Automatic annotation (TrEMBL):
It is found in: Cell membrane. Belongs to the nucleobase:cation symporter-2 (NCS2) (TC 2.A.40) family. Azg-like subfamily. This is Uracil permease. GO terms for cellular component: plasma membrane. The chain crosses the membrane at residues 70-91, 98-117, 123-142, 154-178, 190-211, 218-238, 281-297, 362-381, 387-407, 419-445, 457-478. It comes from Halarchaeum rubridurum.
Length: 482
């Protein structure tokens, strides 16, 4: 039996109606869609100072410069992601990518370290504790049980909600959508922004390829857009750094100031152990609680939403053997915290590979290998600019909108929680908040129409838990407890 046949047998290509070429293409697609995190995560996690004053909270290492810290965190990001995806590949056999989560790293730096004044080592300790709790809950099947408590309309709405969430992320990175103080979001100044113009051309090129059924169309679109940016820069159409290096600038690193790659991550590894010293139990527990809720339901929502797009869900809308991909997430979080980064979670960008036909853990293996190979080009691991890689998110967002047809819109006890899930998710920039809105609404509307006997005790408890979470998250109790 050859190497290809061994892979086919191990991952079950025939059973999942796929082949090695399709899985590799899907893995490359997912990697390209996720690659931005290797620059963005270190940028968010690292402390920035100016004139001796902290202007952005985060990780600061005595004796090391900002650039060296950024690169150490880039290495840690790659390692933690690769380890989690190897577990996903060989244990879970699912095509999901994992990496430190956007939003969770911001909560780590800006809220825990910045607003609460908690040392970054203690924040890492909270991440490790959260990961250990996840492992224990997953081992006994509790996480899968909780996910299976999701009301049916919420399960079917998650895919569409994630689609809208991806669309906002992608359009912002492309420069098509911009911030506005009056309306929150507005159309960007497209004609004045070469990034937006090129990204839009790349988007329509990619959509045209996809509509024609071209295999690997998303990859082709991303690479073509990146190449076009390089050509326009070299031809002098735009100034250097506008299209080439835009990904670097978004990561907070000046392309002209990149130092030699820093691979020694010793100062970060094990730093969480120092975080347990002089811990105030109540505030520490609240921080762990918040990390737990956001990560748990971001992961749950991603698994259900991407699982729906890939046809992985059963007739009840559940993901079979969900404990396995959940364990990969839990291991990634624990290892990531030990290495020195924030919570590792399953990525919604996994949908890009699934849409390319990826169906097995071979996709995760390809992504893991590409992340490890990216160590050779630290800190340029995310060499695909965001305006190009995020084209994939918009393409997938359009495709995921079709999931809305699975919802029974004629039944208001389904339409209300499903609608809230879809609306709250993109408008709060959180998968977890969208799921929470739907879960809280479901027992309320069911009881209101007299169908309270259709609501399980666990669903009431889940809704109550979310109410407690929202109180903790928004009441200021975290600030007063520290």
């Amino acid at each position: 039996m050859g190497f290809t046949d061994t892979l086919a047998a191990y991952f079950g290509f025939e059973e999942h109606n796929t082949d090695l070429r399709t899985e590799v293409v899907a893995g490359i697609t997912t990697f390209l869609a996720m690659s931005y995190i290797v620059v963005v995560n270190p940028s968010i996690m690292t402390q920035v100072t100016a004139d001796g004053e902290v202007v952005k909270p985060g990780v600061a290492l005595a004796g090391y410069s900002h650039d060296q810290t950024v690169q150490m965190l880039a290495v840690v990001t790659l390692l933690a992601s690769a380890i989690a995806m190897l577990v996903m590949a060989f244990y879970a056999n699912r095509p999901f990518g994992l990496a430190p989560g956007l939003g969770l790293n911001a909560f780590f730096a800006f809220t825990v370290v910045g607003t609460l004044g908690v040392p970054w080592e203690t924040a890492l300790a909270a991440v490790v504790v959260e990961g250990v709790v996840f492992i224990l809950l997953t081992a006994v099947g509790a996480r899968e049980y909780v996910i299976n408590l999701f009301p049916e309309p919420v399960k079917f709405a998650v895919g569409t909600g994630i689609g809208l969430f991806l669309a906002i992320i992608g359009l912002q990175a492309m420069g098509v959508v911009a911030d506005d103080p009056a309306t929150l979001l507005t159309l960007g100044n497209l004609a004045q922004n070469p990034v937006a113009v090129l990204a839009l051309v790349g988007l329509f090129f990619t959509l045209a390829l996809y509509a024609r059924g071209v295999t690997g169309s998303i990859i082709v679109g991303i690479l073509a857009t990146s190449a076009a940016g390089a050509v326009l820069t070299l031809a002098g159409v735009v100034s250097p750094g506008v299209l080439i290096g835009e990904f670097v600038q978004r990561g907070g690193i000046a392309a002209s100031e990149l130092p030699q790659a820093q691979y020694d991550i010793g100062p970060l590894v094990g730093a969480f152990l120092r975080g347990f010293a002089d811990v105030e139990a109540f505030s520490f527990a609240l921080i762990v609680f918040t990390f737990f809720f956001v990560d748990f339901f971001d992961t749950a929502g991603t698994l259900v939403g991407v699982g729906q797009a890939g046809g992985f869900l059963d007739d009840d809308g559940d993901l079979p053997d969900a404990d396995r991909p959940l364990m990969a997430d839990a291991v990634g979080t624990t290892v990531g915290g030990m290495l020195g980064t924030s919570t590792v979670t399953t990525y919604v960008e996994s949908a890009t590979g699934v849409e390319e036909g990826g169906r097995t853990g071979m996709v995760a293996l390809v992504v893991a290998v590409l992340f490890l190979l990216s160590l050779a080009v630290v800190p340029l691991a995310a060499a695909i600019p965001q305006y190009a890689s995020h084209i994939a998110l918009v393409v997938v967002a359009i495709l995921m909108l079709s999931n809305v047809t699975a919802i029974d819109w004629d039944d208001l006890t389904h339409a209300i929680p499903a609608g809230l899930t879809i609306l709250v998710m993109p408008f709060t920039y959180s998968i977890a908040y969208g799921i929470a809105a739907g879960i809280i609404a479901y027992p309320v509307v069911k009881t209101a129409v007299g169908d309270y006997d259709e609501v399980r005790i666990g669903q009431w408890l889940l809704a109550l838990a979310f109410l407690v979470y929202f109180f903790v998250r928004t009441s200021g109790i975290l600030q007063t407890a520290v």
